[in-house]
Amino acid sequence: MAKPIIMPQIGQDVETGVIVEWRVKENDYVNKGDVVALVESDKATFEVEAYESGVLLKLLYDAGTEVKVLTPIAYVGEPGESIEEPQAARGSLKAEGLGDGFSKVSHPQAALEAATHGQQSRAGVSVSPSAKRVAREHGIDLSKIQGSGPDGRVTKQDVLAVIPVTAAGNEAKIAMKALIFDCDGVLADTERDGHRVAFNKAFAAKGFAIDWDVELYGKLLEVSGGKERMRHYFDHYGWPDDVSDRDALIKELHKLKTDFFLQIIESGELPLRSGVARIVDEAIAANITLAVCSTSHERAVNLVVEKLLGPERKAHFSAILAGDVVSKKKPNPEIYNLVSQRLGIEPSECVVVEDNRNGLLAAKAAGMYCIVTTNGYTEDEDFAEADLVVSELGDEPNVQVALEKIKRVVRSS
Predict the structure, then answer these.
(1) What pTM does this model have?
(2) For this structure, is 100 an active site residue?
(3) Residue of 158, 182, 189, 387 with catalytic role
(4) Which of 123, 144, 161, 230 is the 20 to 30 A CA-CA neighbour of 278?
């Protein structure tokens, strides 16, 4: 029997999601785990994966449609398989092991009407809840907006598109003035291919039979800070024999690890993550202040910026702060509080790009906006507080985040 793909519930209080983009079309074959759609709520943007392998039998909604969470948005099954049976049996989805809370509406248009009930505005044209909220916050007259959704429905994107014209005063008060990057995992995949490898080289140099594989290192990343990470590992798995001064050992290993890491960067083995150079260039062109805030080693952070972004781009960064200037690691907001002071820019005018929950919490505790670019180590973490969550910034033709989108996130929050 055909299986549904469900609109995910992105946060406990989220009732609807917008299908931003379909990554597949009807009759395409998809494998379990393939990304089929990009969906967005007021809190975040997520990729939706296929639960089963098979043929994409039916897309129930067009891109741009707002749909109730836990409602089927597409069906996957065998070629030529009818979806009439699952349509009539949506009330039994719980028995299929898919959980409860699904919409029992039997037709896409009826589902849309259910999702937008009570949201009608001007001459019967519907307005999404998020569009109403943004319009109210910016004092925008909805009657003057031409909706781009189904049947002329006004979406959040429609309202955001007119903010620069109709709410210039509001925009000026909440404009983004600074774009701040974390280093490890944001500028490059330094954790897996840099720090992890360097730690193993340091252990080998001391004659320790220790190998942090990719999976183990992912668990160790829950501990912030290289020295703290090693201490946690030794406390859990046992310290090497004949170690009289544990603090001295940690200090020596960390120095070795840093030296090896710098060699890896110098060698040019680490590439920039997709979209980083592009969005830095966009920020430079728009006169946005740039900064890097990392609690990693100062020399390593500077070398990553210079080697990966190049000296010309590095010259545009107003601040590059690292672990030498703060006493506390993330999620403590100390480093973000400091960069706000150094730049002379209010936290509410700063947008941070992070890749993990500790960094997100630090940015939010400092009162800043935060975009999360996940990686293989952090994709399953809880990013409910983030203003936007994507798998990467992206380069053409797969750009996920452009500077203008970041500005819209700030204006609409």
Answers:
(1) 0.55
(2) no
(3) 182
(4) 161
